[in-house]
Design a protein that fits this description.
This protein is α/β, with parallel strands linked by helices and about 210 residues long. It is built from 3 helices and 22 strands.
Length: about 210
Amino acid sequence: MNRVAIFGTSGMAREAGDIAHALGLQPIYVARSLDEVGPGIEHEEVILEDECLGLHDVPFVIGIGDNSIRRKIAARFGDQLLFTNLIHPSATFGHRQRNAVEKRQGLIIAAGARLTSQISLGDFTIVNQGVLIAHDVLVGEHVHLAPGCIISGHVHIGDGCWIGAGAVINQGSPDAPMMIGPETVIGSGAAVIRPCEARSVYAGVPARRISCRS
């Protein structure tokens, strides 16, 4: 059976493993230590990070929800390992959108996600269950779109952003896209109706800036 190696052992890694199984792939989980192996993967194949370079011709993904950790792993192993995309069979795409997605690396696109057209996703981004991304959206690298969030058309999301579960980012325009600055967090259930500053936390309906990120 074809295999895929998944960095991580917690919930996001298990979800990546579910996508692998749906694709007919056997997941191999990559742990920092055997102490991390918990319920859900105790009967699966697990290796340590120090062993992953020995997996020749096995593609990798990073099944870790934390954007900063995903970035560090990608930087550490990017020139040494082959990174692939994991895309659930139930995810759907507009005309030519799937081809655009496949040109990236390290993407995880979960069950029920919908990407329409003219969407750019950065490497090592997670599009979680039931996410809807409308037309003409740019998403940076190492972004996490949590379950059920809705990204309307003409939105730009900077590198390292976290868009919370059920959040809605309203429509921009071709001349004035709705901008979400890099490293910004949009809280779960928030409704974004105006641009958001970089390295900030927004929450509420409508979303308001409640703090900056150190």
